[in-house]
Amino acid sequence: MAEAVVSFVLEKLGDEAEFLLGIKEKFEDAKRELGMIRCFLKDADARARNGDETLALWVQEITDAAYDLDDVVSTFVLTHEAEAEAAATNGVFDKVVDCLMFKRPIELHKVGSEIDKILNRLSKLNRNLQSYGLLRNNNVGDASSSNQRRNDLRRTYAHVPEDDFVENEGSMMELVTQLTMEGNSGSPFVSIHGMGGLGKTTLAKEVYHHKQVRKKFNCFAWVFVSQQFTSKDILKGVLIDLVSDPREKEEIGKMERQEKLAEKLYDVLQEQKCLVVLDDVWNTEDLDRLKAGFPKTETRCKILITTRRRDVGEHADTRGFLYQPRHLDDIASWELLKKKAFFREDAKSRGYYEDMEKFGKEMVKDCGGLPLAIVVLGGLLSTKHTVDEWEAVKQNVKELINKGQSNGEQEYNTVFAVLGLSYDELPYHLKPCFLHLANFPEDYEINVKELCRLWTAEDFVPAEDKARECLMALVDRSMVQGGRRSSIVVGRIKTCRMHDLMRDLSLEMGKKENFFHRINFQVPGDSLPTSNVRRLAVQLNDDNVDGLPRLTKISERCLRSLLCFAPKVRNFNDLMKSLFKRFNMLKVFKFEVISEEYGEERVHQIPEEIGKLIHLRLISFNDCGLLFLPPSVANLRCLQTLDLRMSMDLNSVDLDSLRSMNVISKLDHLRHLYLPKFSHLEEDGFRLRLDNLKSLETLVNFNPGYCELDDLSQFTKLTKLSIRTCQALGEINPKSNLQSLSIDGLDSFTELRDIVPLLSRYPQIQKLKLNRVRVNSLENVIFFPNLVKLTLVDAILNVDPMPIFGKLSKLRILALSKGAYNGKIIVCCKYSFPQLESLSLDNLRRLEEWRVEEGALSKLCRLEIYGCVDLKSYPNGLRNITTLKEIKLTEMGEDFMTSFDQKGGDEDSTRRSSKSE
User: Tens digits of per-residue pLDDT, 734-744?
Assistant: First the structure.
């Protein structure tokens, strides 16, 4: 992690020297010291994680010094840029320049003194590198020996059986079919990918020894690749397994030239029906080192790869079959635990089997369906023969699963040891991204857009598109799980989450490396950090929501990011003042209310002290109420994201609070702005001006009741817009790259007969939501060639919209909700909706008949029908759609449900409820 921090600081400070004339030499000396130290940090990081406490302390001091250098320089540059800009804006440039010329030597002297102190620290740490003998060759040898021992213990062998194999139904046969079927993709490659401990190797062994596979192929080879291998040894190992002649085996053993080995293997795989297993391949570069020996053309052989990374399988051959095993379900998890825990035969006769079963089923849930975790737990329980012993394990089950209970071989087979290999192999720029994910609560569905903005604000990445690339790299490595998919970009995810045990690893590594600290006041005994910490995440409950001021005990010079998840808002004004006065180096501040309960306060005063937080990149007060913004907010020159959303229904608006928001117009670097949403608004002639925000990409809750319509024409970079009425449509700049548009009529329907022609000015729109907007004509909808997602709520259509919507060639998601259509019949015409994947019909109370003609909805995957109580029957045309995997039926009439059952509805893919869910 230190390598990541130092590299980031050096890159960031590369362009700052021009602001430091007069102390540039000191600045360059400090950068030079950091650059020399960086050469040793990869090895130092790894050994510090392996338990070298002296080296861990040295690494932490290097990290702190790098951060301090960044803070000193960044603060100086931001302060002087702000003063110069203020001078030019106020028309007193000459006078202020004279003042700065007088102040500059004083300020430079202060900065120079700070850099001197940091330089002395770095020089001392660099000397300690040698005087403490921290990186002698024998230590490197010890590390290498440790790695070799770990590899030996993890090595897999095809002949060693898996006696206790348990699978989710059908997973093994899916792979057997891929390996044995004739005339499939034309590619010889099949890969099993997934997170460490998921049972990839165990599954590969079962497939390798399956009778159908043994019957299909004539010769077999199994090699363990791992992180440390030589190409020559791998190629030799495969060849020796494949050939049967002893003399030929001996000749291969003597071959030393890698190109000859590759050529020989290539010929064998072309000529014979072989199955080769490459177990534990770590990256695409490893495949490239071996590719000369493996043909990609259609042959009678198959190459089965196990890997933690999806991109390894894709890199082998884009035509190949990729398989990701699912985590074990509850039944399979319990079955595996029973096998590994060796239940005593006399447990039932002695009357304590039921108690042990109860504890076992509770403990196995903490394994999250991860076979490795279940095996570790089973090994622990196999030595415990009484109910009391099982209960004792239950009290500390996660700690025992993750870290084990003793040294020796077990230390390499704990969950943390196996998952930690993935962390060790991450490039340095991905490590802070991985560690940061543990800031979010357990089982929290993380919004990818917000996450990318956080990473950008934290300076982990230079831009949001790079942040998304980093996230996908973690998903490809099976360290993060993708959630809901984007309706616009194929393959893009909208949300993500972490497996509980992977999150535990992130928490553990984050604490070890002092990357962040998490306080969960819902857990008894969770306390404030005792050491300096730069990132803090706090989760409160109802009993301790007033305890947040205790955070002011943390060192003010360290904290850069503060995320608070609270059930309600209380004493908000005093709380914010104490925090902002203390932590003036913050880059990220997020205070999120995570319940629908609110305190008595509805309007909150943001203290003037916020203006001193000049490093702030992101502020989020989601659901905190209506905020009064002080003039000092204008000092936040770096601010990129401002989130003032709230879901409270205010009958009247405090106009002073509303007027205070005009300070937003001075935040000219702002990219993403989320305004409050008001149900009622008193007109008083006030207008919020936003025309100075030329960099805006996201604007949510734009309300013509208090916003200036003309400002919309200034936003040429806008990609997402949420507005209250249709009045604003004519003002949107047609040159903007608008992709997502939401129009909310709120209390009264918007009367605008030609809304669709107005919208057709923006053919690039991909997501469109119309709520309480009267739509009288749909004829021009076909002029939205790029529309991917369409949502209509309370549109009161009287003509069946399906014939028109069915012509939208790119439409993948369609939702008609709460009176969007008032007619009795809808018809999906022949071959209509060629790309539609998700369809939702919600509370179409008058709908009685739905017909689906031949070829319509051919790619439908998900169908949800809610509250369409008069709909009589399930369409016959849906029975032949093979892609339809998920059906959710809620509050439907008895006739419809009877029809659904009679027409062969798939019970496994159907969720049904007689009541609202």
Answer: 777 889 999 88
